[in-house]
What does this fold into?
Amino acid sequence: MIFRNDIAFLHPEFFLLLFLLPVAGYFYMRRRSRYYPTLRMSSLASVAQLQSWRGQLRALLPVFRLLAIVALITAMARPQQVSSEQEVEAEGIDIMLALDLSSSMLAQDFKPNRLEVSKKVASTFIDKREYDRIGLTVFADEAVTWCALTIDHEQLKNDLFAIETGILEDGTAIGMGLATAVRHLENSEAESKIVILLTDGVNNSGYIDPEMAAQIAKERNITVYTIGVGTTGEALTPINRQRNGRYIFGKARVEIDEELLREIAQLTGGAYYRATSEESLQRIYDEIDQLEKTKIDVTVTKQYAEAFHPFVFWGMILLLLEALLRYTVLRTIP
It folds into this structure.
């Protein structure tokens, strides 16, 4: 059975008959040249503009017959309308993304900066998790749930691309970010619950200790994957801010508390990754995607409805029209 969009042909072998149409056309033209003799004239100038409407319409008769034959051959191939229903049973994974919004995320060692690249790569990851609920927590000096767990991934991505540094007081409250994500997951009934925490700095604010937040995650059976984002050495980073809100950039050493991030990941059964470029960050998300696979059972039910009737109808109409015109209005004298 051949499918094309929502149409299936039960007997597509009948389409091979279409290859006979050029042969039939050849014999038709030979027969026509013998049946209608040629009148030789020294000049056609006097009759060049004398083609009647009957002559013009008669030229369409072979077209009517050709279209009728194509329609009937298509009907013989048994076109069928295909409708399908898909039932998905998935052991979903609930995922919270915890994203650092401190001003250092504007560092330009990633192009255009760490934050924009992080949003872009996270969006690609979201697209791959079709059957999972995903939410978003953002943190700087404090932490908020920016988007609750949802399967509306388009809305989630809209929320993701809307975030900017400056919507929260500056700082890096890793413990607050992790605790907020864990709190949102703790009542989840999903088989698996994970947090992907991305930061580029050192915990320097917030009233919840990162180790305590990790311990709570462990008690709630929540796996935490941590990502340190930033190149090695120095990077062009915001070092001050003008009164109008614009950042002043300067060279600063990249400092990431890798020991803390590694400890959080190990305590909860996750893993720590260091991303020094957009490509490495993409590979990290790809690896997490492979580690946290969703078990999916998909049952597809297809129904078929015969769709050859219109082709038979129009084929017969065209044949009838061709015959009616040929032997009445467009009849020729033998």
Observations:
- DSSP finds ten helices and twelve strands in the chain.
- Residues 93-293 form a domain with the Rossmann fold fold (CATH 3.40.50.410).
- The CA atoms of residues 196 and 225 lie 5 Å apart.
